[in-house]
Design a protein that fits this description.
The chain has 429 residues and is of the alpha+beta class. 27% of the residues lie in helices and 24% in strands. The strands form 3 sheets. Strands 1, 2, 3, 4 and 5 form a 5-stranded antiparallel beta sheet that branches. A 5-stranded antiparallel beta sheet has the order 7-8-9-10-11, covered by helices on one side. 20% of the residues are buried.
Length: 429
Amino acid sequence: MKRGLRLTNKKRKNTEQAPPPPPKLTRTSRYTQVPQVVPAEEAEEPGERDELDEAATGWQQTTVKMAGLTRMITVGVWLLVLAGPLLAFFAVVLAGSSRATTASGQAQGPNRSAASATGPSGFAELYVAAYLAAGEGTEDELLPYYAEPVAFANKPGSRSASHVVTVAAEQVEKGYWSVTVAARVSAKDKAGKMTDRGMHYYRVGVQVSGTPEAGGALDPSKTPGTPPPGAARSSAAAQSPAAQSPAAQPSPAPSGSASAPAPKGPPALYAATSLPAEVNAPPTASSGGLAYGSDASRDKEVSDTVSRFLAAYLTGEGELNRYVSPGLQVAAIVPAPYESTLVTAIQDDAPDDADEDTVPADGTRRQVLASVSATTGGQDYLLSYALTLTTRAGRWEVASFDTAPALAPDRTGPVAASRPAPDTSADGT
C-alpha cells in the first residue's frame, strides 16, 4: 500500500511539472487569413503609416489638411468676434429709428384724423324732434339739448315730426357745427285735426366737446377732464344720456368679461347754441346728362330681350338665363314683388344711322336705359333699369346689370340748380 501511494504521488508531481504540449498544427481553411508578423527592421515611415490608417479607417484627411481646416475655423471665429460690435451698433440704430417712427405716427395720428359729423348730426336730429313736439309747460324737455330759459306759447303736441334726417353738416370752427335737418311735419289745424304739412328744414348750431371722431377737437391721448369753456352749456345738457348721439355713447361691456375696454379719450358732449331756425331746402343739382340719346323702342330685337328679361326678373315668370350672356350671375327677386310688367320706353347709345331691322355682328355692345311700369295690387309703379346688351349667335343678350345709368363722356358732373322753399302749410300758418 505504501509503495502504491508513492507511485501515485510521483506520477502527480511529474504531471504538474511537465510543460504544456505544443499546439497541434491544423490545416487552415482557404478563407481564413493567416496573421503575418512584420519584422521590426521593416517599420513604416510616417507618411506610409497615414496611408495605412486611411485605408483601414476610411478617413481621408491627412495631417496637413487638418491643420489647414483648423486655421480656417480660427479665422472665421476672429471675424465674428470683430464684427460683433458693428452688428450690435446697427441693431441699436434700427431699433431707435423704429421707436421714433412709431412715436411720431402716434403723435400725428390724432391731428391727421378728420372730424366726423356723425355725432353732431345725430344730436341735431334728436333736438329738432324734441323741439317740434314741445310746448307751453314742457320746456324742460329741451334741457338735454338747450339749457337757456325758453317760454313757448303753443300747446304741447300741436306739432310732431317724422322722417327726421340730416341733409347738410358744416364745421364752422373746430368743435362747432352748423347742421341742417329735414323733418316731415304734421300739425293740428283749427279743428284740432292732425294734418300733414310737408317737409320742413331746420338749421341748428351744435358745439362739441370730444375727439375729432366725435366731431370735436380734443386730443384723445389726454385723460378725461373738465370740458373747455363753451363746450357744454350746462351740466344737465352734458350729463343727460339724450345729449349724446348713439355713435358717441360707449357700448356696454359683454357679460362675463374680465374688464371693460379702456375709453378712447374724453367723452363726447354736445350742446345747442340756440333754438332751431327754419330755413329753405338746400339747393339740388340736375343731372349732367346721360349717354342714352337714341330711342330704341322701335328695335324689336332689343325691345323683346329687355322686356322678357325684366319680366322674369320682377315677376318670376319665364327663364331668366335664356336672356343673359354666359358668365353673368343674376337671379330673379324672391318673392316676386310684381304681378306683371310693361316696358314703356327704351333709350340706348347707338348711333343715329344704326339699322334697327337687323342684329349687328357678334360681340356688338349697346347700353340701354329701360323704363318699366310694374303692376301689383292693382297699382302701377314706374321703375328704370340700366343694362348693357351684347350680340351672340344672331341675338341680343343682357351682358351686364349696370349699377347706375351711364353718363355722357362730354359731361363733367352735375349742374347746381335752385329749388323753391317748400309750402309750409295750407292755411298759411
